[in-house]
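#dry-run=false #mode=assembly
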Amino acid sequence: MSEEEDDIILSELPDDELVQQMFDDLYDGLKEEIEEGVNILLERGWEPYRILTEALVGGMTIVGNDFRDGILFVPEVLLAANAMKGGMAILKPLLAETGAPRVGKMVIGTVKGDIHDIGKNLVSMMMEGAGFEVVDLGINNAVESYLEALETEGPDILGMSALLTTTMPYMKVVIDTLVEKGLRDDYIVLVGGAPLNEEFGKAIGADAYCRDAAVAVETAKEFMARKHNQMAAG
Amino acid sequence: MTGAPTDEILTREGLAPGARKGRILLLACGALAREILALIEANGWDHMVLTCLPAIYHIQPEKIPGAVEAAVARHRADFDEIFVVYADCGTGGLLQAKCAELGVQMVQGPHCYSFYEGNARFAEIAEDEFSAFYLTDFLVRQFDAFVWKPMGLDRHPELRDMYFGNYTKLVYQAQTEDPALTEKAAACAERLGLAFERRFTGYGDLATALAARA
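#status=ok
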């Protein structure tokens, strides 16, 4: 960080410049600065949901785009995510209190035999940022774990993640089980993970393969809109 | 070891087949070069010529199918057979599909950790060992270039537990008996905050796959 940047006093910036500065701070993974920025905007009377969408999600969208375009890499995205997490931790209880809009609900987890959760955690966070309620089942989930969560949580979307060529076929086990039980059409099934691709997603009977967290959010929103349209038409 | 370039060259550039033409071209990952050359030398497989793609594709698997396709096109006329010495290696089945399209054979299995251990054995232990992080001889030597730096741990060591918090141990699959390498592997485990286990695998199914072309 340069000396000039050291001199910036967040509380002295007008709202629009503060939000721009928070974009920069998110990009640079500066967790404490993000937490400070969130607190300043709250003190200025911003609604928690507005801070979340305009400052945090807005900033992470830039990070996500630059990751997609090969400008940023995983370490930088993780640092940015960690900074956003700090801001989210302040906002989350307030969002519940202030009745922020809920776009939909998602149950998400890494499949059995797989302990990788970086991508899944990013998706969870960005989905929450986009107004989804997310129930995160963590890593190493057997089909029973998904089924139980689907039954108890009643989500709109099931998200499954895998990083390994050896574990990604397990997604088909879960989807086939849903089909067997006559539950498949009750959920939008989204899948993701480094070795996956669109063909694989289609082959196992998922609704969509999501290349990254930003795509997951957009895809989830599209499917939710379609679901609402179908319900309205029906 | 004769004929193997440095790890740095294997990582970034790979290995050209030279002017030789022959019966079988082994089109391999640069991370397997030393091991394959050792097998060729030990077994006198003079009809095999080795060429390698950059080993760094190990962490950029999306580049492998296209690079294999280009290499097959470049060398096809000079050899009776091209054998692709890659497993799936994180391509999610795309390399298998590409090889089928090109009419060339490849090594079976999900990745080198599996074929070094032996695919059948690896599948057997996978259920109990899915929280293991694997390194081979090459990856121990090139730990910084393939793990530490690409993950940004040189710049941001605080990210370590985000990457490795769910892992329980580092398994060093040793292809050779090399106490210095074992020591380095143990140090890698310590840097990642993981328990350490060394298992001698030798060349596993890599040797079997090449012997089938002898």
